[in-house]
Request: fold
Amino acid sequence: MTDNAARAPSPGRRTFATPILLLLVACSFSFGAITAVAWAEHYHTNCVPHGFAHGSDSNDGSFFARIESGCGTGTRRCALYTYGSFDGDQTVGGTSLCNAWSRDFGDYRECASTAHTWYSGVFSDHVHKAHNWCG
Amino acid sequence: MRSGRYVIPVLVVVGACAGGVAAGSAVAPDAAPRTSGDEAVQARPGSASIGARAPDPGGGPGWAVRRYSSQGGLECTEAGRYDGERFGRSRSDGEVEQQPADEAGTCAVRGSEPVEPVINRYPVSDGTDDRTVLFGQTRQDIDRIDVRVDGRRLELVPANDGTFLLVLEGLREPASLPLTATLRDGSVRRYDWR
Reply:
């Protein structure tokens, strides 16, 4: 009788466990959501979509620094770097989409690469890392 | 029994209409080009052709502009090495590595600007020394295009398909290559890359 009473969960413990479980669920959900948003930052929109475009595979060494068309005709520059070294770049006028392709410049490790994008009068030069960053 | 006589003709008509819709959708260009997403740059099969060509200042395979239409309805250009058969990049053995037209073009809505100029800069690699390559496509109402290089004015003469190309030694700042397009109506458009 005494043993059984000792093993049975007390009402106090039960009320403590439920909020902890709810908190764990909420934290896990937030972690997942924040991670997803952070990874999405390899390509984002500031007037026009731009950033690091992986193409069909994130590990095949074929990737792009890209600024899509729109928001005027200002000069746009998209550059690629790997382990901090300059791979090559593209600058466009007119209305063209800026699209610097890694394979035009050589063979580079995709996860250690960054896309540097600049659009005159729209956004300043800033860096987008590969979403599977390993640099 | 009687209604059964019409089943096959109805099926044939419906099938033919569906086939026609599918074929028409594949051939007819979209009314509004898509300027965003993969379709904006992805090449439409069979649309690629070689336009302007230029030699490399250091010898070896020359350069060319490849033009293609994207699945989104844009006109795209890309610069690369060209040996008369293969278009791509130069390898350390001097051969050109073929790169099929895929999604590497610089794309724009056809005719939206008199000139769609592009500058690519290639640092030294196995197959090439430092190069700055100015290329692009023009509208039909262009009279002439000039670029200032080292204080001299050079006229860029477009190929028959409207593409143009200039290959320079070294890695040059785009702002040092201001481009001027003169239209047939006398108006002038300047691209200073700033």
Observations:
- Chain A touches chain B through 30 residues (CB under 8 Å).
- The two ends of chain A are 63 Å apart (CA to CA).
- Confidence is low (pLDDT under 50) at residues 1-6, 35-40 of chain A.
